[in-house]
Write a structure and sequence with these properties.
By secondary structure, the chain is mainly α. It has 9 helices and no strands. The protein has helices spanning 13-22, 31-36, 40-48, 59-72, 76-86, 94-102, 112-127, 132-139, 144-166. Helix 4 crosses helix 9 and helix 7 (112-127) runs antiparallel to helix 8. The two termini are 27 Å apart.
């Protein structure tokens, strides 16, 4: 059980409308969403920071950034939700999904651009900055709009990890689990 009790149905009409927009038809809202929505202010801020729209990154690029960020922060909750919801659509193989948790950025299952992307996520996580060389490598594959999106995704999913891990959210029953080896 979460350290803050999540909302239970029936939900306020405005919150239900938000849940209907972000969840697949017929799916129950995630514990994460129901917990954050206990605070109108927190829910509004969280909802407004969403980066799951059609931004400049491809679905595959976006999901690599999210999964790697969640793996680095030890956020099995959000990593599993994203693997279950998006890995297939993003055309990530089982080996690549596993690599987001267990392999270095230069794992051979990734293209050169993807290795550079993962190295940037790793650098941002570990040092909160990119060296000139790391930025130049990233800029060789991604334009300024994509680079800003990468940085925003890393920051937003650090926030998601802080919430999910800090509240010790129970893992979604249908979500993937971190690979063990």
């Amino acid at each position: 059980m979460s350290r803050i009790a999540p909302l239970q149905p029936p939900y306020p009409a405005d919150v239900q409308a938000d849940f209907d927009r972000v969840m697949p038809p017929g799916a129950s809202p995630l514990v994460l969403f129901r917990t954050i929505a206990t605070s109108e202010r927190a829910w509004k801020k969280f909802r407004n920071a969403s980066l799951l729209d059609r931004g400049p990154l491809s679905l595959r690029e976006r999901e690599i950034v999210i999964k790697r960020t969640c793996a680095l922060t030890g956020c099995e909750y959000e990593w599993g939700v994203h693997v279950t919801a998006f890995a297939q659509a993003a055309k990530l193989t089982d080996e690549q999904v596993r690599a987001t948790v267990l392999e270095p950025a230069d794992a051979s299952c990734w293209s050169g651009a993807e290795q550079t992307l993962i190295a940037a996520v790793d650098a941002l996580h570990h040092r909160a900055r990119l060296t000139s060389e790391e930025f130049a490598a990233l800029a060789a594959h991604f334009d300024g709009m994509k680079i800003l999106e990468i940085m925003q995704l890393c920051g937003f999913y650090h926030t998601v990890a802080y919430i999910a891990n800090g509240l010790d959210l129970p893992l979604e029953s249908n979500a993937a689990r971190f690979p063990q080896n």
